[in-house]
Design brief:
With 100 residues, this protein is mainly beta. It has one domain. The chain has 1 helix and 8 strands; from the N terminus they run E-H-E-E-E-E-E-E-E. It has a 5-stranded mixed β-sheet, with no helix packed on it. The chain has a 3-stranded mixed β-sheet with strand order 1-6-7. A hairpin with a 2-residue loop joins strand 6 and strand 7 (87-93). The protein starts with a strand and ends with a strand.
Length: 100
């Protein structure tokens, strides 16, 4: 798996004094009868149940990736910093959401 963490993300994490990040699959809901739609989001810190994650070290950052979605389709992952009107957050590209 190729994991790229942009420099702006590294700077942001350094400012926040955080060295651990993980991917969570967040239910963003579907429309009417479409059911739950899960999208990948980046959270700061360690996951509550780290046994469900594969651990990767990228420079000085520990990245937890869910075992259940660690497959050949998710080969290239990029973590970027998003800044909307001064509100900063991390986003992941290279992963797709899914319906449940």
């Amino acid at each position: 798996m190729n994991i790229e963490i942009k420099k702006s993300v590294k700077d942001y994490l350094h400012q926040k004094n955080v060295q651990d990040i993980y991917i969570a699959m967040d239910n963003r809901g579907g429309c009417c009868t479409e059911g739950a739609v899960y999208v990948p989001i980046i959270k700061l810190g360690k996951p509550a149940n780290s046994g469900l994650y594969d651990l990767f070290k990228v420079d000085d950052i520990t990245f937890y990736f869910p075992k259940k979605i660690n497959n050949a389709e998710n080969e290239n992952i990029t973590i970027k910093l998003r800044n909307i009107l001064g509100h900063k957050s991390l986003v992941v590209s290279g992963l797709l959401g899914f319906k449940y």
